[in-house]
Amino acid sequence: MNIVVERYTKIKSNIVSLKPIKPVNIIAVSKTFPLDHIHPLIEYGHIHYGENKVQEALAKWSKKKTNNQNLKLHMIGKLQSNKAKDAVKIFDYIHSLDNQKLADTLAKHQKNLKKEIKYFIQVNIGNEIQKSGIPVNELDPFYNYCVNEIKLKIIGLMTIPPNDNNSAKYFKSLNELNKSLALENLSMGMSSDYVDAIKHGATFVRIGSSIFGSRS
User: Fold this and answer.
1) pLDDT confidence band for 72 (50 / 70 / 90)
2) Please, which pLDDT band fits residue 42 given cuts at 50, 70 and 90?
3) H/E element holding 173?
4) Which domain holds residue 164?
5) Strand 153-158 relative to strand 204-207: parallel, antiparallel, unpaired?
């Protein structure tokens, strides 16, 4: 068995052993890795992949997605409004919706391209100056604006917790916020903390190095 597939199946069985309440989707974070490195996992049947740069995603996945309609591509990095049109073209999910200007731009391009994207609102759960995300106290009005005013399909919240070895606390808070909005999905957890994330209700985990190996 290919090493990438081997690592993936190990993580998958680890997730099953946690007995999550809802199904958990593994987003294999393929950013910076060439397609030939990712290909064995596609062949194996895995469909969810994560990229954090729009240009890289277009170059890498456009042909692949045309040939394989099942593939789902997730934008997990910071998204600038000037890249929104191309993002709508290539991505199926956007996890980093974090301001009104971006929301408006995405809504416009979605309409023009006749494509509906699924969105996660990124929340700055640790209130960190250097991190993207909507502050917790602005979440409710922003969510209502996205859903009611510009009709975006918001399926859940997303966060990258502070790097202070206290991820579980932040995951718990995000899960509570998610429930307060009656949202079905939750995008949180990476290679180092996905177990804690799943224990607190994550339905999408973003795993890169534990599947593809370390980035050069």
Assistant:
1) very high
2) very high
3) helix 167-180
4) 3-212
5) unpaired
- Residue given tokens 């990229």 in the structure block: 51
CATH of the domain at 179: 3.20.20.10
Tally of domains in the chain: 1
Q: What is the pLDDT of residues 160-207, one digit of tens each?
A: 998 888 899 999 999 999 999 999 999 999 999 999 999 999 999 999
CA dihedral of 11, 118, 136, 77, whole degrees rounded to 10: 60
Closest CA to 158 of 117, 98, 116: 98
Contacts of 59 (CB under 8 A, 6+ apart): none
Rounded CA-CA distance 215/33 in Å is 8
Q: How far apart are CA 15 and CA 27, in angstroms?
A: 13
Structure tokens at 106: 């995405």
CB-based contact 205:198 (threshold 8 Å): yes
